[in-house]
Amino acid sequence: xxxxxxxxxxxxxxxxxxxxxxxxxxxxxxxxxxxxxxxxxxxxxxxxxxxxxxxxxxxxxxxxxxxxxxxxxxxxxxxxxxxxxxxxxxxxxxxxxxxxxxxxxxxxxxxxxxxxxxxxxxxxxxxxxxxxxxxxxxxxxxxxxxxxxxxxxxxxxxxxxxxxxxxxxxxxxxxxxxxxxxxxx
Length: 185
Ligand SMILES: C[S@@+](CC[C@H](N)C(=O)[O-])C[C@H]1O[C@@H](n2cnc3c(N)ncnc32)[C@H](O)[C@@H]1O
Fold this sequence. Notes:
Layout: H1 3-12, H2 14-17, H3 25-32, E1 42-46, H4 52-60, E2 66-70, H5 74-81, E3 88-91, H6 98-104, E4 110-115, H7 124-137, E5 138-148, H8 154-161, E6 165-169, E7 176-182
Parallel strand pairs: 1-2, 1-4, 2-3, 4-5
Antiparallel strand pairs: 5-7, 6-7
The structure holds S-adenosylmethionine (SAM).
S-adenosylmethionine is lined by residues 16-19, 22-23, 46-49, 52-53, 70-73, 76, 94-95, 116-118.
């Protein structure tokens, strides 16, 4: 999808996209940097958009790994489905249904969750529900990472994940924070 088309689609659905720009290459690299791709076999991406982070994940992924990509926007899903990679499963549904789709694929825990869903556009309850679910399905030693443009939700993360670390990404519009957690073993 062209950059202009991405912006138009994002503006049209601003309440669900939460931003009008894609994550920069630096932000994508930061988001994927906490996953151990040598060992990760089941990986989840939340809020994939038209796939800017997805490509980084697929490039780093093991040949036997699978990527479950959640996205609610129809146009973005169409673009994601054009990615020719048998390891990718595009799920056009909300991150709230994460556990259901994993179960359908015979999975109870995953090695990594990489997310750009716009929690600031969600109710506090929905944010808590999705983050609690992420913590539940993440394996011990697995990695969770999420991009944000402010730290207003830091307390919520701490409540769910305990200690949460932050990586600042200056080269992004706007500059961003990647919140991440490597789950205790
Ligand atoms: C900020 S954009 C991120 C796009 C891309 N991953 C990036 O980093 O540039 C957020 C994406 O989350 C999607 N989204 C919003 N609510 C969602 C939900 N409940 N479940 C899954 N995806 C959702 C939006 O449609 C949008 O594509």
